[in-house]
Specification:
Four copies of one chain form a homotetramer.
Chain A lengths: L1 E10 L4 H11 L3 E10 L4 E10 L6 H16 L2 E6 L5 E6 L4 H11 L6 E7 L5 H6 L4 E3 L7 H14 L4 E4 L8 H6 L4 E5 L11 H8 L3 E8 L9 E8 L6 H24 L3 E4 L2 E4 L2
Parallel strand pairs in A: 5-6, 5-8, 6-7, 8-9
Antiparallel strand pairs in A: 1-3, 1-4, 2-3, 9-10, 10-11, 12-13
Helix pairs in contact in A: 1-2, 3-8
Chain lengths: ~280, ~280, ~280, ~280
Amino acid sequence: MQKITILIHCKDKPNIIASVTNFIAEKQGNIVYIDQHVDREQNIFFMRLESEFIHDSFTADAFKDSFRNALAAKFGMKWRIYSSARKPKMALFISKYDHCLYDLLGRYNSGELNLEIPFIISNHLDLKSIADNFKIPFYHIPVTKDTKEAAEQKQLELLEAHKIDFIVLARYMQIISSNLIAKYPNKIINIHHSFLPAFVGAKPYHSAFKRGVKIIGATSHYVTEELDAGPIIDQGVTRVTHSHAIEDLIAKGRDLEKIVLANAVKLHTNRKVMVYNNKTVIFS
Amino acid sequence: MQKITILIHCKDKPNIIASVTNFIAEKQGNIVYIDQHVDREQNIFFMRLESEFIHDSFTADAFKDSFRNALAAKFGMKWRIYSSARKPKMALFISKYDHCLYDLLGRYNSGELNLEIPFIISNHLDLKSIADNFKIPFYHIPVTKDTKEAAEQKQLELLEAHKIDFIVLARYMQIISSNLIAKYPNKIINIHHSFLPAFVGAKPYHSAFKRGVKIIGATSHYVTEELDAGPIIDQGVTRVTHSHAIEDLIAKGRDLEKIVLANAVKLHTNRKVMVYNNKTVIFS
Amino acid sequence: MQKITILIHCKDKPNIIASVTNFIAEKQGNIVYIDQHVDREQNIFFMRLESEFIHDSFTADAFKDSFRNALAAKFGMKWRIYSSARKPKMALFISKYDHCLYDLLGRYNSGELNLEIPFIISNHLDLKSIADNFKIPFYHIPVTKDTKEAAEQKQLELLEAHKIDFIVLARYMQIISSNLIAKYPNKIINIHHSFLPAFVGAKPYHSAFKRGVKIIGATSHYVTEELDAGPIIDQGVTRVTHSHAIEDLIAKGRDLEKIVLANAVKLHTNRKVMVYNNKTVIFS
Amino acid sequence: MQKITILIHCKDKPNIIASVTNFIAEKQGNIVYIDQHVDREQNIFFMRLESEFIHDSFTADAFKDSFRNALAAKFGMKWRIYSSARKPKMALFISKYDHCLYDLLGRYNSGELNLEIPFIISNHLDLKSIADNFKIPFYHIPVTKDTKEAAEQKQLELLEAHKIDFIVLARYMQIISSNLIAKYPNKIINIHHSFLPAFVGAKPYHSAFKRGVKIIGATSHYVTEELDAGPIIDQGVTRVTHSHAIEDLIAKGRDLEKIVLANAVKLHTNRKVMVYNNKTVIFS
């Protein structure tokens, strides 16, 4: 049995849902999940559908061709179709903070994440031993002002050689270049340690402390050209009080960052995120 | 234009979604919302669908007949179809606590609730002036051990005379009889002041205080024969500490009760709740 | 019996706590609450203390004199002492939104708020009937560009005539003048319908919708010269999804606003808030 | 400099706070933290105080003697005094679930936890490699019905040999004997995967699924004779919907368990927990 996940968006028109469900029925698929959303302001239709196919002759490639010809053209759809047969490949970019790394690798090791991690890249050696313990190849690619371009070239070679599907910046602490962003659009997930759009940029916990907020947060988002302004995937918050010093905010924030980043990784991996207009539609 | 909301559940089988969406397309309806759920344990399929019909000849009754014949029989569906043309009618049962009453009437007055409140029933006169201020008919029906049956008879007469669709117990504090429950199955909403199933029965804040919990809650649910054991519609929680006395828990709980009850009223009114196996499916 | 609440802040030095507790003991007071906080960055000490006095000869004024001479001078304290004998007086400023008004008046009527509301001021007549229902004097003071100064003069006269202690802007929607702010420093509480410092200014729910945040919030704060930048008293948040339109955010936000504003009113009324460096210390 | 933390509880009487703060002042200590709580129902006074001592002659033992003679006897105090000079020693009991283990060891390695972990005990070998990676001695002590007593004897020997201060059951899944509980009263921390007192005992996520709750939780508590009924230290909750299968509840629950257990470990380690009447006072 093969499971196919279809993500569609297009201008809203009558009969899209009936047309798609008919198409699936004709192909002898059984729909096990359907959800849709319409952005009324923009008049855009979004749909996510999972279907199971049991007959022998089914192939994802033939299905895609047929879908393209029969439906996509007619409705002017932008679409993606994923087969359950292939696990997505995630590259981890890290630096010196270990909490998100431990958290993701712990989940990975327990089988909680439906993905593969071909390698970890870091600009520092501090966390190499953790990668070693989890038996994941670790590439040390230092980044300085002068070597930034060459470093990125090495990164790109690794990403391409391993057919990486998406990148997770687990507190990587480096600005990603336009070039890399363009090659992985809506495929680079960052965790920012504030409740965006509050406290963009460096040292958000310090800013939160100074402003005297009563709630702090963390935000996972896709990386775009503008710093910390990409489509938000998930956010988490926790209460703080005047009694918390900056280091307390940082410690409490670590727990938020871990969970909010792991949620984003799971949503992305399970094909539950669609991006439109610098926002996300997150299917359940 | 008329909007129709359809709620369906039946044994899960292939092609239900395609069949229903086709049916709507044939009737020239435009689907504006579809969501579904499958309980894999029980193999039950649930669906909620909203469709707009613009042609002149459309009538809800004819649609229902057609749906019954064309689809419901074939798939063995249990189904309900609601037209947007009719607002549900809610009876409010209250006693001496005013916080849920103020909250619901405030929302009602502001147009937040898509329903009508033909009357309020109370076993005490304490809150009559509030009903008067909001210009809602108030019936004082005292309940004692001896008059319980006669009181309920009066309640039933009012409910039937006003064609009431559902009842909300806004801290009514009286046990509802089997007879009334049977007449309004999954149509009587109660607010219980604990995080069910913890602290069933009387004085849950006292029990929560004694147990030393760090979080208290409130639960809205449909009333069934077994006390506080009906299908849960919504729950809310808030943190407490050792420094909160019982009266503090009660005060904090009031805010939970108001919101959790109002949520349940809105979900029920918007036909977003399906009940099955003493649980609810809550569509978004 | 009289209860005295003392709020102190001063440069942190050794022996402040012992000196103050000794002073209370000498006056035959029994301390029923003590809490303190030290801002290590600024080296500022904060303390809140409640003490009960049962002997006949106790008077708050004599106590204040004695405290001033014996302690305040020595440690360079800024301090406030409140007697339980006097309830604070709150003026409500409203406009056209009724949800915070209903909420506060409902709480007030139920005895949940330990304060008096001598009057309500509004620049519109829309909500007059609510004030009437709750039997609270309502003053209609329209504000236009031309009448702004005269309107404020009328407001000030009312505030002074009624010996108002603090002002609550329950979605008043007008900018408060520097003059009024200066007369009621850290005594004007506003509710802003966003998670500050995100979405300062007008139409924050529209901005939140546009940014695609997954959590929205509300913030109660003291009004200062800079718009929406005053010391934060309380914040609340709730989850939203892509499926929520702007009007859904507004509706969900109303529930946040009510609770976050009511919390601020209770904290202020119970003398649990100290302001320092544009931040608050909130005692439990 | 040495920091002393004092925890006191006794019958509430006037002048306790003044007496204790005076005592500290006489010993030339500087109070850097004071908080208190009175259980009005039981008339019990609780206090937590931190004081810094800088003079050379200070010793914790002499201080304790002096405190016992000067204050404890007079007020009938139960008290504990801890010096910052000694880190508490924690034994980890685990079984087959790795999420709490990874989480605690990740925090430990990062320096977030102010404690030592002399060893890990498990009744299974599954997680030995994790202990090895973190270079913590791992003792495999299998437990069967027949070997339970002998196994516990081995556990006790290890606990005593290493002068263990408290035990953490990180999803250990075995009932702790009365004997062990008696030797470590309020010193064995368990994580239960439900919002206690709901769903006591085995398979709470299955029970939560069956009941159809809309919020699930986790509870850290001290182990007492009665199963899952000991004093609650911390609780956490998260929302679930009908769309979550049991395995989803389990996965979401893991994140709660990690954080709620880590919070309990930190509160216990920082001497912020007092136990009374099967409840906890948790100082900030």
